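Page 37, top half.
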Amino acid sequence: MQRKRDNGWADRWIYGIPIRRAWRAEEKMMIGRIAFNSYDPKAGQALAVHGAELDDDEIVEALKFKVREVNVYGEPPLEDADAPIIPFAEAFRPSRAFAGRAGTRTSVYQDGETYLYLATYEGGSHAFVGRKKALGDKSVALKIGVSNYPDRRCVELNPGIPPAAPGKWIVKMTSQAYPDISGAEEVEQQFKHRSYGKLESLGGEFFWGRIDEAELLFCSLPGMARFRAK
């Protein structure tokens, strides 16, 4: 991302799909065996954007493909370094429960540099809050919050969402560092106060509205001269 900014490419390649999990094919197979209806050998190679959609029978065949899960850069490493080879249909099988451990737990919280962040629920906000989507409605679920590590906080928001679900919380904007948590919380409260008439409150730190309205409001807060967009 920094290389893109340095080269003036911030507006390029902005529609990439974030990779959270990945599987490596462990068997060789001709595409015609999977896409036996949609594949056209005369088409040769084509970019994915020009690709044909698999029909239901082809999807069933594709899910039989033997795969092994592998690590993804930037994501937590796999607990099992030698993941088993399984049919792709079993990739989202239920995970094992965490082993319970008894004993004393101690936590130490230190004050210090804290950031304000703006997150959106991407991949089906209307279904997420139980609303029907009207034609042209670009409203999304939003969250404002403070954290000393916004990227980690974003990761913490998503474990309760099934891996196969299309929706995830994404941090869209992060402020400059405030000297302490109280300073960041004060600005967070100003966001909530100024949101009246611009965004609909969903309770607590959550709102409903257009992302461009939320971003303009975020940028207008005190101390945002050096905020960093995600």
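Page 37, bottom half:
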Amino acid sequence: MQNLTATLRIRRLELAASAYGLLFSLTRNRRFFDRKIKTGILLLSLLGLAASAEGQATGHPTKKAKRSKAATAKKDTASSDEAVFCYAVEMMPAYKGGTDSLFAFLARNTRYPQSGIENKKEGTVYVQFTIDSLGRVVNPRILKGIDPDFDAEALRVVRLMPPWIPGELLGKKANTDYTMPIKFRLTDVKK
């Protein structure tokens, strides 16, 4: 019964952390959510450790322990240290060379859509993507777009990005969602 209670607490905290992560990515007031997310992650970690220790003490492995045994038995191309996925990490992913290098990459590789030039359209496309535990940019998606041509160009540029330095949580590489605005301004168009 206690194991079930701990599992329910973990599920509730996972849902809360997921909701905070979504709000975190969509809001501009990130300081408020940063504190709540760190607290949630700490509680999740403690409850997860308590549940697995309780399962080992009673001789009944938890579902998570059963899944991890099955995952390590497969041993595809994954390393023995499985990556953790989270919305907030201790060390955020970083573009190799820093933000100046990132902005230079975006300026060098972004092509202003012809339809935007003709219609004199400007705006900002918000792209969210995941930096995996190897630093690769995966699963780019548009959070807020302005036009299909602009959205397609933003996705194209994000897919071109070289590997990043991955984020870390508790000393392990972590898959981390990252949201980036890509601004399209007519003044930046090369004639």
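Margin note: The mean pLDDT is 74.
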